[in-house]
Specification:
With 387 residues, the protein is mainly beta. Helices cover 5% and strands 41% of the residues. The chain has a twelve-stranded parallel sheet with strand order 1-2-5-8-11-14-17-20-23-26-29-32, covered by helices on one side. An eleven-stranded parallel sheet has the order 3-6-9-12-15-18-21-24-27-30-33, with no helix packed on it. The protein has a ten-stranded parallel sheet with strand order 4-7-10-13-16-19-22-25-28-31. The protein is globular.
Length: 387
Amino acid sequence: MKLKLQKHWLKSIGVASSFLFAHNAAQAATLSVGVGKTYTKPSQAAAAAKSGDVIEIDPGTYSDDCAVWRADGLTIRGVGARPVIDAKGTAADEKAIWLIKGDNTTIENIELLGCAVKERNGAAIKEEGKNLTVRKCYIHDNEDGIYISDNPNSEVNIEYCEFNHNGYGNGQSHNIYVNYIKSFKLRGCYVHSPNTGDNVKTRAQENFILYNRISDDDNVPSGMSLNFPNGGACYVVGNVLYKGRKSNQPSFMAIGMDGATNIKQALYLINNTIVNSKKTATLFRVQGGTNLRLMDDIFVNVGKSIETSGAMELTQINHNVFAKPTDFADAPAFDYHLGAKSDARHAGLSAGFADGIDLTPRFEYVDACSVKPRASGSRDIGAFEAQ
C-alpha cells in the first residue's frame, strides 16, 4: 500500500538525471567488502566506486575505517548480519565516519558508531551531496547521528532506523540534524536518548514525521523531541513522543524559534500519543505566523499546551484527549495501545487534507523500527489502534 503522505517522495528527479542513471546502471558493478574479498575495508571500496555501483559489505567489525563516498547513485548495504563500522574517535576529513559527496545515495543495514572531531560535531553520516536514503541502520554514540548539509534541491529519506546516544553533550549536536533542504521524511524509526541535544532538528522546507517512536531516556539529559527552527510545512502523524524526567527542555517541540523563514509555516499534529514524565511540560513553543491543526492526539501529563509568540494565522485544535497512564494497555512498559475503558477508543475523526495531502494515519509504529497497517473502520484517537 502506498501512503498518500509520501507523494513528495515519489516524484521523478528529472529526465536528464534519469537518462544519466540509466546509462550508468548499464555499467554498474557490485563491489564486495570483507575477509577474502576484493576490498577488505569499506574505505577501499569507496575509493574505487563508480556512479551507479552497489557496495556489499559482509558482517564483521571494521574498526578505525572512515570513508568519503564521491560517486553518484551508489547503493551501500550490509549483507546478512549488520556490519559494524566503528570509527573509534576518528573521522573522514574531520567530518564523519561516512562523508557522502555524491548524489542519490542509498545506505542500508549498517551500524555506525564512535565518530569524534575537533569541532565536536563528528557525524556517523554527513550528507554533502543531494538526495539520501538511509534504511534499516543503527547509528549511536557519535557526536552527531546524521548531519545533512544545505542543499535547496535535496530530499532525505530515513526509515526503519534506530538512533541513540548521539550528541557531544553541549546541546549543539543531535541524533538527527537536517539543514536547509527541500524535503525530509522520517518513517518507522526509533530515535531516542540523545546526549543533551534534540532527537530531531530539521530546517527543511517540508518535514514528514510519520509513525516513529521518539523518546528520551529518563536517566540522560536531552533536548526536544522535534525542533523545526525555521518552521516549514511539518506533517507529524502517528508518532509516540516521550519526554523523560531529565530533559533539559520544557517543550516537546518548537517551531520557528530561529525565525520563521521557510516558505510555508504550518504544523499538522495528527493522531500522536504524547507522554510527559517531567514535573511539567509544554507541548510546543511557536513563533507567530504558523498555521496549526491538532486533531485526534492523546496528551499525558502535558500542562500548558501551547506557548506562542506573535499572531497565529489559523489554529484548529479539536478532538484531542488528555489521558492518564492507566488509560493504556501498559504505560510503564511503553505500550500505549488504548485500554478497554478508554474514551479515546473508536472516537477518531477525519483530519482531512492539507495542500492535497491526506492526513489520515494509514500505519502505526511497531517495535523495533517498523510499521504495520493501521486497522480500518472506526479509528481510535492516538498513535495506535486498540488491541
